[in-house]
Amino acid sequence: MVHILSNTPSILNVFISEIRDAEVQKDRLRFRFNLVRIGEIFAYEISRQMEYVEKEVATQLGFAMVPVLKEYPVLAVIMRAGLPFHQGFLNVFDRSDNAFISAYRRTQKDGSFTINVEYSQVPDINNKVLIICDAMLASGTSMVNTYRDLMLKGKPKHIHLVSVLASEEGLDYIRKHIPQQDISIWVGVVDEELTAHSLIVPGLGDAGDLAYGKKEINS
Asked: Residue 142: which residues within 8 A CB-CB, separation 6 or more?
């Protein structure tokens, strides 16, 4: 199932409009902060599908039964653009263990490229709910390669794949290359066009560069 949050009018659409806006993007701090706020909204929406147990809480005047998370999810982030987005999830799921994956684009002389997963640091994910977040889902290759790398390290009971902006082509690529059982896909908005260089149009540009500054080389 694909959940597209912008299909329902909410404050999320305001934050997405700001990270798209070329003028607002000049404020790097605001760009990162909006990604954090968007991550918090996604975390809330996903939390509604998780398991809860009743807990007795002592107040100053008595006792209250409150539903609390049965288990916190593991949060996985694809660096570097996904870092502020991930922080939003961590603000909500503040007791979660975290996985960090370094994936980068290696461009060839003919303009083609491959996505390489170079490094991953992963806690125990066996029989856990796993959330994999990245700011952009363009070709879908980074998400698929990250998924495959994580599956070598454990078998979660459910996986949420989350991106702020996605292309139709990227979603199709995920559907073709990731088994659909026990998988949920969450995106803020879906754009139709993907260029030959895997840039989403209208998109927003390079999220990593907008958050942290332009990179000169991939190394």
From this structure: 78, 103, 115, 134
- Tens of pLDDT, residues 97-117: 999 998 766 554 554 545 566
How far is residue 130's CA from residue 136's CA, in Å, rounded to a whole number?
18
CB crowding 112-146: b at 16 or more within 10 Å, else e: ebebebeebebeebeebbbbbbbbbbbbbbbbbbb
Give the C-alpha distances (Å, rounded to integers) separating 26 from 1, 23, 118, 143: 35, 6, 30, 28
Residue ranges of domains in the chain: 2-212
Inform me whether the pLDDT recorded for 215 exceeds 90.
no
Neighbours of 194 (CB within 10 A): 20
Neighbours of 42 (CB within 10 A): 25
Fold of the domain built from segment(s) 2-212: Rossmann fold (3.40.50)
pLDDT tens readout for residues 115-161: 566 778 999 999 999 999 999 999 999 999 999 999 999 999 999 99
Residues 6+ away with beta carbon under 8 Å from 179? none
User: Roughly what angle, to the nearest 10 degrees, separates helices 11-20 and 28-47?
Assistant: 150
User: Residues 64-72: contacts with CB within 8 Å, 24+ apart?
Assistant: 71/128, 71/129, 72/96, 72/97
C-beta separation of 140 from 84 below 8 A = no
Q: Which two tokens stand for residue 121?
A: 């640091």
Measure the CA–CA gap between 23 and 36, rounded to whole angstroms.
19
Per-residue CA distances from 127 to 81, 88, 155, 158, 182 (Å): 28, 24, 6, 8, 11
Instruction: Note the pTM of the prediction, 2 decimals.
Output: 0.91
